[in-house]
């Protein structure tokens, strides 16, 4: 019996998660890299309202709940230097991945994450804190880039969305962990109140570094580096005329993470609640609620992508619901500023927004961004796109205090008007330009872009890649397979294995 790919137009067998449990486990281990980002973002957002932290790095201010204020410049830098560091590392991630691979990049990232955390724990100097934030940002850029690329290349086509969406799963687990720990330490009035949450950031890189010992390098990376015939086939399918479209789509999808307003609420939600009238204690508690709802949203989104909705629909629904949540926050602050009703609206719609973001755009953006790019340029394009995302996130983190800080423009929740409009623009982008990629192998996606299939016809267009693979196998064997001979249908992962053995 000869194992051959299923012919075009037929349906590839979709094996269960249980049958792919080893691949899922490996991807889950690699995806823990993203937990570091969740922990760090939540911890740093919480420290800005923590009396013990502000006693060291802030200034006394009896007008503010908790008795301490924070300088706007310090607030801007500790929030934005993380994304600046991630921008710097992710922009070089493609070159690093090309020469050294995904696993080596993750090991380097683990070292930088530990170093950055240690620097922040051991100092009371703001300048040193800035340096630590930059270092940990560089590590986070590598962690996010390489973990998502690895999962995209390792996962079967029909499970890729679930496995790459583990990014959001681990980010939210990290966010919940960070929020809970900060809630427990915020009552301390000494340095341990912030040193303990910062120390938690040792956990992820240490465990990940150990786990990577048992994780193989990306099979597609190894194929591209050592299997010339497979590389030739990839080059043959790719044409320059489709690469620019795919690059722009990848950049656009990653940019919508910032365009959704997520970075504003991730970076400043706890502080934002305090300046909007909540006590410090209540702000920390609602922060836990918000991150828990976000975690639930991730799992809801994964079920929707796996069983009910395509990537395009998920992204469009996400933009609409996120925009409405932001609009509701802004309207309540305009109609009834400073009232209990406006404060309750802020709490409710912030939590609802985090659920919607994590269920839709937050869940689907990385699967889509890693699928839409060409096989040959995946490391370079995804790395550059993520660097753009971090640059936009840095810009948001740097500019947001000008809008929300009482010492500056003092817009408060009215700032959400900007992000509501941005979400609706993102929705239009998804509707007009984003193709449906669900259920397609990476090679099929390459072919569809090469053929210039429009976004609206991606789902219905039949591909020829399986026929071409079958013909090449037959040519190598030097004979034609009898059409009446028993045939075993295999998925794309098995096809690659067969092709590798043939070489």
Automatic annotation (TrEMBL):
It comes from Bombardia bombarda. GO terms for molecular function: carbohydrate:proton symporter activity. It is a multi-pass membrane protein. The keyword Transmembrane applies. It is found in: Membrane. The keyword Transmembrane helix applies. This is Major facilitator superfamily domain-containing protein. Keywords: Membrane, Transmembrane, Transmembrane helix.
